[in-house]
Write a structure and sequence with these properties.
Length: 220
């Protein structure tokens, strides 16, 4: 948590003030956004979760068992009480939604946009993926990063992609803590999302992207 604030948020603020402007909030587009745009960003993120999970599973089927690092990480991010769950929400969902979005979208993508325009979205999306140092989930993280970048680029506001980032991380924590069984699928103990979930989510996600694109045309 401290590394997020000290190594991402603080440097971004300092670099913007030193090299760009003292109006940091304006530079990173920390401004209001329509509630519908925020909700669409969150819905699109939920739909992307099974798509990314199934894609990762298909790409790495038959791979070795989880490493000790993976097991330690899973243990660290598992809550066993309500206070632990709330603490994890702050550390794993709220903090990255602020710090990572401020750095990767608010500073890096915003700066790249000045010369690269829309091309900055997938570029920063992959930088975001590599930052997490999870080779097995690189493609999925790249998709999530690109989605967050698309939201930011189209909405011209930090709030929708911060809400989307929070949603992605919160759902991951909640699935482990609450161990929900949805349509007969134990999301905590089953290692893979059903392929049909991804098949159904894909056209819905594409629809959300299209609606978001149309809604934000006014900002171009």
């Amino acid at each position: 948590m401290l590394s997020q604030y000290l190594a991402l948020l603080l440097p971004a603020v300092l670099l913007i003030r030193m090299w760009h402007t003292r109006k940091v909030a304006n530079y990173v587009r920390f401004r209001s956004a329509p509630v519908v745009d925020v909700l669409l960003a969150m819905v699109g993120t939920v739909l992307l979760i099974p798509i990314g999970a199934v894609l990762t599973s298909l790409l790495h089927s038959g791979s070795a068992a989880p490493s000790d690092l993976d097991k330690i990480t899973e243990k660290l991010f598992t809550a066993y009480s309500t206070p632990e769950f709330l603490f994890l929400v702050f550390v794993v969902a709220i903090t990255p939604a602020i710090c990572e979005e401020f750095f990767f979208r608010g500073y890096v993508q915003r700066t790249f946009e000045r010369t690269l325009g829309a091309h900055s979205v997938p570029i920063v999306g992959m930088i975001f993926a590599m930052f997490h140092m999870q080779p097995a989930g690189l493609l999925t993280l790249g998709l999530i990063g690109t989605w967050l970048g698309f939201i930011y680029y189209r909405s011209k506001s930090m709030l929708p992609n911060m809400a989307a980032h929070f949603t992605n991380n919160f759902v991951a924590i909640a699935m482990v803590y609450y161990a929900p069984v949805i349509f007969g699928v134990d999301l905590k103990n089953d290692e893979e999302f059903p392929l049909m979930w991804a098949v159904c989510a894909l056209p819905l996600f594409v629809g959300v992207v299209w609606v978001y694109f149309l809604r934000t045309k006014r900002l171009k």
